[in-house]
Amino acid sequence: MSILRQVAARTLAAAQRTEQARQALSVAAVRLDEALDIATRALEGARATSAAQGLALLVRARQTITEEQHRLAQAEGVVLGFHAALALTDGVGGATYTHETQAAAGPRASSEPGAHTRRSQREVTAALGVGAWDGLTAAEHVIDAGRAIGRHPARRKKYAIREVRSVEELDALFDALSSGGERLHDATYAGSSVLLPDGTRIGYRTKSKTTVEPTIDIKLPDQRRLKIHVNTEGWIDDAG
């Protein structure tokens, strides 16, 4: 096995470990939410300072878990981008692995929270020739549950779903995120489908059971996915 293949295998293993850590934190978050609910009801009306301090500590612990989940998601995106760069290097006619590419995968100092990860990913993206939206690749948007895209739907869904305001915005998203990919010919998919160098598959579907508007489907090799729908109603300036 070549050195690059060994490095690629280990970076992928690192990404998988990071995902496992995020899943473990998700379980911890659920348990803390349960503890907070029980403690809040049990201590309702309590005047003791220790009761308020205890609740405050639980709240802070929950906030810390949320912050760590976000950091792990960012780290996973950088590692996956670095792995994609190595994987592309191993193909015929692929990009050349250089010290500049390696540097692109490392964090850079920034005064903006989280900006160092996005800047690093943009540099990796530039080396790969893969598109991005709001500084994140399609894979990173899936990892981040699409939080940088539009808003979440009113009802909870099985998979991560985001909504955008118009078909024009959806088209712009697809054009940006599918850039650099290879068009696929899939007779079973009701629309256009593209395979990106990192293994992410992104499709623009014209038929859906839940909407008359087109839909973007993004799926990672590990089957994590994100759907993006159009919903023109109910938008406000601070929708999240």
What's the topology here?
Elements: H1 3-42, H2 49-89, H3 99-104, H4 115-128, H5 138-143, E1 160-164, H6 167-177, E2 182-184, E3 191-195, E4 201-205, E5 215-219, E6 225-230
Parallel strand pairs: 1-6
Antiparallel strand pairs: 2-3, 3-4, 4-5, 5-6
What would a concise description of this structure say?
The protein has helices at 3-42, 49-89, 99-104, 115-128, 138-143, 167-177; strands at 160-164, 182-184, 191-195, 201-205, 215-219, 225-230.
Notes on the protein architecture:
Residues 101-120 are annotated as: Disordered. The chain is built from six helices and six strands, in the order H-H-H-H-H-E-H-E-E-E-E-E. The protein is of the alpha+beta class. The protein folds into two domains: 3-94; 131-240, no CATH class. A six-stranded mixed beta sheet has the order 1-6-5-4-3-2. A hairpin with a 5-residue loop joins strand 3 (191-195) and strand 4. Helix 1 packs antiparallel against helix 2 (49-89) and helix 2 runs parallel beside helix 4 (115-128). It is flat and about 65 Å long. The model is unreliable at 91-121 (pLDDT under 50).
Number of contiguous helices: 6
Please tell me the total number of domains.
2
Measured by DSSP, the beta-strand proportion falls in 5-15%
H and E string = HHHHHEHEEEEE
What class would the helix/strand composition place it in? alpha+beta
| Major β-sheet profile | 6 strands, mixed
| Radius of gyration over all CA atoms, rounded | 21 Å
Question: Mean of residue pLDDT?
Answer: 75
The gross shape turns out to be: flat
Helix proportion = 40-55%
Query: What distance separates the N and C termini?
Result: 46 Å
State the total count of DSSP E strands: 6
| Largest beta sheet: strand ordering | 1-6-5-4-3-2
Low-pLDDT runs: 91-121
Region (Disordered): 101-120
